[in-house]
Amino acid sequence: MNAKVGAAAASAGTDAAERSVLLLWMIFTGLSVFAAFLLWRYGLIRLMVSSDRTYISSVIVVLYIATCIHCFWRTRAIAREGEVARSCRAILAAPDGAKALVSDARSLPRGLVTDHIRSLVQKAEAQAKGRIDQTLLLRTLADRLRGSNGFGAFVSDTLMKLGLLGTIIGFIIMLAPIASLDAADKVAMKSSMGLMSDGMAVAMYTTLAGLIGSILVRIQYYMLDSATQRVFSDAVVLTETHVTPALERRLGTPP
Questions:
Q1: What is the spatial distance between Cα 124 and Cα 130, in angstroms, rounded to a whole number?
Q2: pTM
């Protein structure tokens, strides 16, 4: 009963931290969408797409949108884990919270933090005596919380390299007519100047799209990594202050 009361108390601020993490991501994404709308309104995005004959800029945009969706999915998952950690703290901090550790902590809400607590309970039952060292289990928890966050660094680097690739291709297009350029042939000169202009447009637009996309992805995943680190820190404090002391008391470990 008290466990249910603790869970209800934890949900009284129903997902306040979840909303704060998601709200930060939504504010950033909203500003990005507003900036993209202004660029579209003034025709700059259409100009970029039409001027980039290699379509590298379009590939960068599509990859960036897919990465934003992945970042939203990961941010929501981390926010839920933060909620689980706070619910577990509310339950275990109750006067009879130690009873929640009985029967493999099945009364706790589902999540990676709860799985870590259950692993500690199983380790305590198997260990039978002595202090509980959760170092290795914490490393596993950290890896599981990070999940696929590294995808952001990979995409950021890929966007940057796609921009550089577009720069190289653009300069190749721009410099290709120079070898066969005849100053006396005005028609050929005009055609060559057009190709050089197209090549410069490809180089500039792809570089700009790659740089902006890479920076925006870095910012999003920096916020995600910060939220992940906060959840992990909360899990460490929770287990060190409520879980391992209760389990060690059950084992009869001297202080």
A1: 9
A2: 0.81
